């Protein structure tokens, strides 16, 4: 960041990136306020406080946090049933829960999310952002369409000529000048709702400090905490990949919590990382530091408070074009190329598709990612279950049958283990060699005991050999607690 402050060229990138993000945040924050059922100022102030706070506290430089649709969907029922004070109390509690989850290491769970779930997450969000722009193109004056087309030409074509000025900013300025100078009657940012004219003030929710209040707000706070952390941590990982840098996911987790606490204390609706605005900042504008995130929040506040009348003139067509560009840049087109689909195992493609379909169908990131992870686990278990091999050899004198077991023995693979032995035809002595296997769970211990018990019913002596230390320990410990154990 210090290097950027010393370089006018790099600083210009950060400043312009923050400005473009601020302009794009205004209609988004207003739209999310409508979804949540609150005054537009609640969403706009939340975007300001989240961006400024996370720029200082967060663990992923250049990532944008603000009021989001995911959070708006979670808290909308609470706003409808109990009002703004309860909503702010829930945001405050959600922030505290996020800090606690960060302390216990929730960020470390990110390593259990497969790459194909990440790809599905990115593709689903690109689709959702695009679908959110469709209503802006329906039932509007015909002039909106050529204006949107012109803006698309600018945002896609200008980077091929120069990257001195961010193409989204040029599109916004050009379309605003055209609509104002030509007095064109098209939807503008001002049509989305009233912009605030004062600074946000300190806000303490007026709710009873009782157990009944906690019962009301806790489910919403917990859902908001999980959805916010999931979206933020996955967006942070995406930015890591784009910028080839690493970030502190634990710091990002508690930073999001602290930012939500600060936001609640200023009467904001809370939020989390925004993949659309983050892609504008990182991909379209080329920003890389906390400066752009901080300035996005500052510019947002200055624009709506001091220049609200000017911002209100920006045609929605310009912002729709910018968001469509973001969708295009965000979507992982490589993941759906015919060559990729032919070379990728069917199970990997299935995981990606399940994540996309579940996320788009429910508009809920947590459900989509959960479905993708569950699908990945089931398909992995199925795949690993089929790599267990049991080979039988008979001694020259026919007095000993040896079984060499190879593979990972757990619930999916050990269920078939019982049927891999020739109980009736084997001689009086059997050896089961597990040198090339590993015992993972109680299902395997129970399966081995069942094998031994059936051999004993046939009068056969069974010896299990080759267990590694971990498998031996697990086997003995579980045999002491499993019904019928002790073989």
Automatic annotation (TrEMBL):
Originating species: Pseudoclavibacter terrae
Cell location: Membrane
Superkingdom of origin: Bacteria
Keyword Membrane among UniProt keywords: yes
UniProt cross-references to CDD domains, sorted A to Z: STAS_SulP_like_sulfate_transporter (cd07042)
Keywords assigned: Membrane, Transmembrane, Transmembrane helix
Alphabetized SUPFAM superfamilies for the sequence: SpoIIaa-like
One Pfam assignment: Sulfate_transp
Protein name: SulP family inorganic anion transporter
Predominant subcellular localization, coarse grouping: membrane
TM segment ranges: 41-57, 86-110, 117-134, 140-158, 170-189, 209-230, 298-331, 351-381
């Amino acid at each position: 960041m210090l290097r950027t402050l010393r370089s006018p060229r790099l600083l210009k990138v950060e400043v312009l990136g923050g400005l473009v993000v601020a302009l794009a945040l205004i209609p988004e924050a207003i739209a999310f306020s409508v979804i949540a059922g609150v005054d537009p100022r609640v969403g706009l102030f939340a975007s300001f406080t989240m961006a400024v706070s996370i720029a200082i506290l967060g663990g992923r430089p250049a990532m944008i946090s603000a009021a989001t649709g995911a959070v708006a969907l979670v808290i909308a029922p609470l706003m409808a049933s109990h009002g703004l004070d309860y909503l702010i109390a829930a945001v405050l509690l959600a922030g505290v829960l996020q800090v606690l989850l960060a302390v216990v290491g929730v960020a470390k769970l990110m390593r259990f999310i497969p790459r194909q779930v990440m790809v599905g997450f990115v593709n689903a969000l690109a689709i959702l952002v695009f679908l959110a722009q469709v209503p802006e193109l329906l039932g509007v004056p015909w002039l909106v369409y050529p204006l949107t087309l012109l803006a698309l030409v600018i945002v896609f074509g200008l980077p091929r000529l120069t990257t001195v000025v961010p193409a989204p900013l040029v599109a916004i300025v050009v379309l605003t000048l055209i609509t104002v100078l030509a007095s064109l009657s098209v939807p503008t940012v001002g049509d989305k709702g009233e912009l605030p004219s004062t600074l946000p003030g300190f806000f303490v929710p007026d709710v009873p400090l009782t157990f009944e209040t906690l019962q009301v707000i806790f489910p919403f706070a917990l859902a908001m905490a999980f959805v916010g952390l999931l979206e933020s941590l996955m967006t942070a990982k995406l930015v890591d990949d784009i910028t080839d840098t690493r970030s502190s996911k634990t710091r990002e987790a508690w930073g999001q919590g602290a930012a939500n606490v600060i936001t609640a204390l200023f009467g904001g609706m809370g939020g989390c990382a925004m993949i659309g605005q983050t892609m504008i900042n990182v991909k379209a504008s080329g920003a890389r530091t906390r400066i752009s995130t901080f300035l996005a929040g500052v510019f947002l506040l200055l624009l709506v408070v001091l220049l609200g009348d000017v911002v209100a003139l920006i045609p929605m067509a310009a912002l729709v074009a910018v968001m469509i560009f973001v969708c295009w840049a965000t979507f992982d087109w490589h993941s759906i190329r015919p060559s990729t689909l032919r070379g990728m195992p069917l199970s990997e493609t299935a995981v990606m598709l399940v994540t996309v379909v579940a996320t788009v169908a429910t508009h809920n990131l947590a459900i989509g990612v959960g479905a993708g992870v569950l699908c990945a686990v089931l398909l992995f278990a199925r795949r690993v279950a089929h790599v267990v091999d049991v080979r039988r050899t008979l001694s020259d004198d026919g007095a000993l049958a040896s079984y060499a077991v190879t593979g990972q023995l757990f619930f999916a693979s050990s269920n078939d283990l019982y049927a891999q032995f020739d109980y009736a035809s084997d001689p009086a002595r059997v050896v089961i060699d597990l040198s090339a296997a590993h015992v993972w769970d109680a299902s395997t211990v129970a399966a081995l005991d069942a094998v031994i018990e059936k051999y004993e019913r046939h009068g056969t002596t069974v010896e299990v050999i080759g267990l590694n230390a971990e498998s031996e320990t697990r086997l003995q410990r579980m045999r002491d607690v499993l019904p019928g154990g002790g073989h």
